[in-house]
Amino acid sequence: MAYERERQLAIEAATAAAALCEAVRRDMVPHAIEKNDKSPVTVADFGSQAVICRALAEAFPTDPVVGEEDASDLRQPAMATPLAQVTQQVQQVVPATSSEQVLDWIDHGNGTVGQRYWTLDPIDGTKGFLRGDQYAIALALVEAGDIKVGVLACPALSFDGGTPGLLFTAVRGEGTTLMPLPQGPTQPLRVSQAADRLRFVESVEASHGNQAQQAAVAQAVGITADSVRMDSQAKYGAVAAGHAALYLRLPSPKSPDYREKIWDHAAGVLVVEEAGGRVTDMFGRPLDFSQGDRLVNNQGVVVSNGTIHETVLAALKQAVTA
Ligand SMILES: Nc1ncnc2c1ncn2[C@@H]1O[C@H](COP(=O)(O)O)[C@@H](O)[C@H]1OP(=O)(O)O
Ligand SMILES: [Mg+2]
Ligand SMILES: [Mg+2]
Ligand SMILES: [Mg+2]
């Protein structure tokens, strides 16, 4: 199988990070630390990035990792308490780790996009994580702009009332699989074509999309049920598993020039594509992962079961020009 080492390593690292995040949520009631851009980060985001970057640095030392977080704030003297908490959490995975080591592992994620790179969102949906809702650990390998491996760990996700905790894994050309966390039988995953599964998913956070326009487009393609609102790339998982036919993320009227970050999409895109679905921007262009840490050549994201994709793009064109 192609990319077997990369796939195995990504699964192991994301599974360890998922356990760390769940331990934080269970044991310490995480609170938000505010970043410069006012968005939240927690002890678990830092711990997850440290654990995954450590594994990548060891196994693939020359691969850059483009991760969401960096350790500059954590290095400030005023952050001694959260740093100690991050270190304590990482020690559950890697015993006898020092804080210095943890900071260096986090900063291993400050790489830049190149011919081959990994991109990591140590917690995608930090707001969902803090609310007790959905979040994901998202890790992907990209070569020449093409996503080759994508792993999405969704510790709080379940379908049809199952035990929470699902891991999605995709390798380009080899399909998508679903496995319970932390381990269990693997099953291949396909998107759904069933008419009764014509649900659509969107963000919980209204400011991350355009909910009025999303509802109008969904209705135009015959989806009459209310949206299922979900944080994080778990939405890609819902489409890949056939629990939704469509995920719409249209530019928010409050931030029309926002460009999506690569770590918010890379793993999810491959998980859906390899399950038989399709992902483009709102104009039908493929997402371009070769340009840097943002999708500068794209606006909005449309994720579907494939079958309805062209109809959705046509409805979107009408909605935007109307
Ligand atoms: N204006 C925006 N439009 C789209 N996504 C955004 C916007 N602002 C922040 N985000 C990103 O949305 C992601 C969460 O998505 P969701 O709502 O689907 O759970 C976060 O990674 C967040 O990035 P950041 O962590 O930099 O704030
Ligand atoms: Mg994040
Ligand atoms: Mg994110
Ligand atoms: Mg964030």
UniProtKB/TrEMBL annotation:
* GO BP, sorted A to Z: phosphatidylinositol phosphate biosynthetic process; sulfate assimilation
Cofactors needed by this protein, per the record, are: Mg(2+)
UniProt catalytic activity: 3'-phosphoadenylyl sulfate + H2O = adenosine 5'-phosphosulfate + phosphate; a myo-inositol phosphate + H2O = myo-inositol + phosphate; adenosine 3',5'-bisphosphate + H2O = AMP + phosphate; adenosine 2',5'-bisphosphate + H2O = AMP + phosphate
- Locate the residues binding Mg(2+): 68, 121, 123-124, 264
Q: Which CDD domains match?
A: PAP_phosphatase
Stated EC number for the protein is 3.1.3.25
**What keywords is this UniProt entry annotated with?**
Hydrolase, Magnesium, Metal-binding
InterPro entries named among the record's database cross-references: DPNP (IPR006239), Inositol_monoP_metal-BS (IPR020583), Inositol_monoP_superfamily (IPR051090), Inositol_monophosphatase-like (IPR000760), Inositol_monophosphatase_CS (IPR020550)
Q: Which Pfam families does this one have?
A: Inositol_P
Under SUPFAM superfamilies, the record lists: Carbohydrate phosphatase
Q: Name the residues that span the membrane.
A: none
Give the molecular function GO annotations.
Answer: 3'(2'),5'-bisphosphate nucleotidase activity; inositol monophosphate phosphatase activity; metal ion binding
Question: What PROSITE patterns does UniProt report for this protein, alphabetically?
Answer: IMP_1, IMP_2
The family annotation for this protein states: Belongs to the inositol monophosphatase superfamily.
The name under which this protein is listed is Inositol-1-monophosphatase
What is the phylogenetic placement of the source species in the record?
Answer: Bacteria, Bacillati, Cyanobacteriota, Cyanophyceae, Nodosilineales
